[in-house]
Design brief:
By secondary structure, the chain is mainly beta. It has five helices and 34 strands. Strands 1, 12, 13, 14, 15, 16, 17, 25, 26, 31, 32, 33 and 34 form a 13-stranded mixed β-sheet that branches. Strands 2, 6, 7, 8, 9 and 11 form a six-stranded antiparallel β-sheet that branches. Helix 3 packs antiparallel against helix 4. The longest helix has 15 residues. The chain starts with a strand and ends with a strand.
Length: about 475
């Protein structure tokens, strides 16, 4: 039986990249700056008591790159001598709030720090001071603290004697996993535009009915991951929430593209600029993943002031590539697939439909040439530019006398220069030649936006098109209503 889980990262968003870690009591071959991000370790041969495994899995200590090992070993009772306790100090440029601090200690061997103290500061003011006694290799030190910009962590004891204090990962909050039994409702809408004339944001709406009596601290941009049988459906970020009762919280989330819509962009002027480089710049702070067949392109023109999302759309449209976030933690840049994946009749529900749009008689794309001029009508970063426009078109050769004129015109693509405008017009024409929108209800089996799907219809044949929208009803068996565009 399939299983769907929602992983809510109840963390301080941005604290990991903002954290400056210092640990004078760490061994020289360790890298404490990796503590906020985590490391993957292997069991290592050391001089610690009973820490010399002979099963072939242990490797030399110098062959690993741990985040934190203390310089001193604990004593016979696991305690560190007074004045020699390992101390880790983490300072932030901004202030953060979290429900506590999570630790992943020495996961390869199961060792952990069994006593520690955490102090939370706001500048020089001590906000909280608490002792904790971890009893497992992964442990959450629960303490709700708001507006702190400094942590001082003092390790007092290890669970076994004569051991180094070891920490793989420090999380400024807690990762909470919910099954469907704790979700009153959960649905996602993943969508994209196949020619990037717009850049839709995918969304997630869910209502938590928590088993735990916890005061959740839902913060803007906290990540939420949805998975089905270990297949990632999408990563979303908290945009708003409310509280209906002691344990019930309705939460609204958007994907990385939606978050970019909240980040201002001042505009820019570009000459033969790398499309890939522009995408990476505009997508920050999110990672970008380019499909292997995506070729770079040089773009000339301007991007008006707005948001990173609107600027990214301009680049993608002129470039002829698409973006989506489903099935990954990054923003994927790709060309829609052309090799059909056949959806079986057993995977679809009755009621498949096909809607056919009116024939497009012509496509027009306006190319722009920008020249600096004191009389210009476009201002970018204080400089005025004159915009010279030129129309490039593609006409439908199959138009008949009875067809109604239907012209699609794109006039505000400011990175479409005359050098690429005809190719852009041809690409847009080919998209509008795909007049059929196929709608079907499908049992999820790892499909992603942009996939080319062949879906059986209700009259004994099948329709092929690229998946552009998935309205997902989350349960242990995930079902989505699809929209795909085809000829």
């Amino acid at each position: 039986m399939s299983k769907t889980t929602l992983l809510y990262k109840d963390i301080a968003p941005g604290a990991d990249t903002d954290a400056a870690v210092s640990a004078p009591s760490s061994q020289g071959f360790t890298d404490p700056t990796q503590l906020p991000f985590g490391t993957s370790e292997a069991p290592a041969l050391t001089c610690e008591l009973n820490q010399w495994g002979l099963d072939g899995t242990f490797i030399l200590a110098e062959e690993i790159e741990p985040a934190f090992w203390s310089t001193e070993m604990s004593g016979a009772d696991g305690s560190f001598a007074s004045g020699q306790e390992p101390v880790i100090t983490i300072v932030f440029d901004e202030q953060y709030s979290s429900v506590g601090i999570s630790f992943r200690f020495d996961t390869p061997t199961g060792g952990f720090c069994s006593a520690l103290n955490i102090k939370w500061y706001q500048q020089d003011v001590l906000r909280e001071d608490a002792d904790f006694t971890p009893d497992a290799v992964e442990y959450f030190c629960q303490k709700k603290v708001t507006s702190y910009d400094k942590l001082v962590i003092t390790i007092k004891k290890t669970n076994l004697p004569y051991r180094y204090a070891k920490i793989d990962h420090i999380i400024f909050g807690l990762h909470r996993s919910f099954g469907m039994s704790e979700l009153r409702s959960a649905s996602a809408v993943n969508e994209m535009n196949l020619i990037s004339t717009e850049l839709p944001s995918s969304t997630l709406n869910w209502t938590l009915d928590s088993r735990e009596d916890v005061d959740f601290m839902f913060q803007l941009k906290q990540p939420v991951e949805i998975s089905n049988d270990d297949r990632l459906i999408g990563v979303y970020y908290v945009s708003s929430y409310s509280r209906k009762s002691r344990r019930i919280y309705p939460i609204t989330c958007c994907d990385a593209i939606g978050v970019l819509g909240d980040i201002p962009f001042g505009g820019g002027v570009y000459t033969a600029a790398s499309a890939k480089a522009l995408v990476v710049e505009l997508a920050s702070p999110f990672e970008v993943e380019f499909d292997a067949d995506v070729q770079d392109m040089q773009l000339t023109g301007i991007i008006k002031s707005g948001t990173r999302r609107s600027a990214l759309q301009q680049v993608l449209f002129a470039w002829g590539e698409c973006a989506s976030t489903d099935g990954r933690a990054s923003i994927r840049i790709f060309t829609p697939g052309v090799e059909p994946k056949v959806i079986s009749a057993n995977q679809t529900f009755l009621g498949t439909t096909v809607n056919t749009d009116a024939i497009v008689t012509q496509v027009q794309v306006v190319a722009h040439t920008y020249t600096a001029s004191t009389n210009g009508t476009v201002t970018i970063n204080g400089t005025k530019y004159e915009d010279t426009e030129e129309i490039f078109s593609v006409s439908n050769p199959d138009v008949t006398a009875t067809d109604k004129q239907n012209i699609k015109k794109i006039s505000d693509a400011t990175l479409v220069s005359p050098a690429i405008a005809q190719a852009v017009a041809q690409r847009v024409y080919e998209y509008y030649s795909r007049r059929n929108t196929n709608k079907a209800k499908i049992v999820y089996n790892g499909e992603k936006l942009g996939d080319c799907l062949t879906i059986p219809n209700s009259w004994g044949s099948a329709n092929t098109g690229n998946l552009a929208k998935m309205e997902i009803k989350l349960s242990n068996t995930v079902v989505y209503s699809s929209e795909s565009k085809g000829v």
